[in-house]
Amino acid sequence: MTFDEYLAKHPFLQESAKVYNSIEEAVSNLTKEKLAVPPEHFLKRIADEGLPLLQEKAVQEKVIADSAVALEKIVQEIKNLPVTREMQETAEILAKAFGEKKELASALMELIIIQDMERLSEKCKEISVAEPFILLVGWNIVSSILPGEIKKRTVWEKVKYRRNYCPVCGRRPVMGQLRKEANGKARFLSCDGCHTQWPFDRTGCVYCGNDDLRKIEVMEPANNEKIRLYACKECKSYLKTYVEEDEEEIFLRDWATMHFDILGEEAGFHKQGSVIMG
Ligand SMILES: [Zn+2]
Ligand SMILES: [Zn+2]
Predict the structure, then answer these.
(1) Considering only CA atoms, which of 44, 52, 248 is closest in space to residue 165?
(2) What is the per-residue pLDDT for 262?
(3) What CATH number is given for 152-271 in this structure?
């Protein structure tokens, strides 16, 4: 199934598709992959020591500087995109504020990248902009600057990275995927911020580590074989999981599968790792 066919079948997603796709496209037109792929021994160290790539000082400084430049440019473009009126207004406020405060764009990108949600929240209040917007645009920029190679699950499988946060940016995963491997199914997690995929234990809760399977509830949406929700009764989180292969472009996108979230939310569980929810 192509993305367009999927959207035709799910007309309620078309407005979101316009917003997400147009921002993604505009960001990728304005940015280039700026970071070189680190050598394997560097990736191995991330796997062994657990410090994500973007939390390495030198890498972090470069990404903040590059993404701040992109942020200043993209807010000028938003008014021409088919996004909501509210987003266009937010972009205008930001464009004006960037003109007045020279360091503002890099201060915002720094708070996004170090994931200091408290200070980001304060800063957004100070300049009267909506936080979800700045998070969505900010993470799109970070993702666009990173080389595609570093986001591949095979890269992290090779160096045996198996932690419950993203090896590239450090965010908690937003979704999972079960894939067929030689010894049965293997689980991979995916990041809503930088879109990296990495391997993790096949069972148990990815958020709190609960491995008592009696406390994991598996929810299957009606009329859909491709998505399951693994909900943990211990920490009340659920992991939306794509249980097939080859349609990752659709079924590993959090926004394109948002109608499945209702199942988890209505049962009293919560999503984690979503960019716009902080
Ligand atoms: Zn990430
Ligand atoms: Zn849990």
Answers:
(1) 52
(2) 94
(3) 3.90.1670.10
Distances (CA, A) of 107 to 104, 168, 277: 5, 20, 20
Ligand nearest to the CA of 204: 2
| Ligand 2 mean position, distance from CA 235 (Å) | 4
The domain ranges of the chain are 3-145, 152-271
Q: What's the predicted TM-score (pTM) here? A: 0.95
User: Helix 131-145 vs helix 85-100: angle between axes, to the nearest 10 degrees?
Assistant: 70
Instruction: Look at residue 6 in the predicted model and tell me its pLDDT.
Output: 94
CB 166, CB 159: distance < 8 Å: no
The rounded Å distance from CA 207 to ligand 2 centre is: 5
Tell me how far the alpha carbon of residue 150 lies from the centroid of ligand 1, in angstroms: 10
How many angstroms separate the CA atoms of 172 and 270, rounded?
Answer: 13
DSSP per residue, 54-69? GGSHHHHHHHHHHHHH
> What is the rounded CA–CA span in Å between residue 138 and residue 146?
13
179 strand-pairing partners:
186
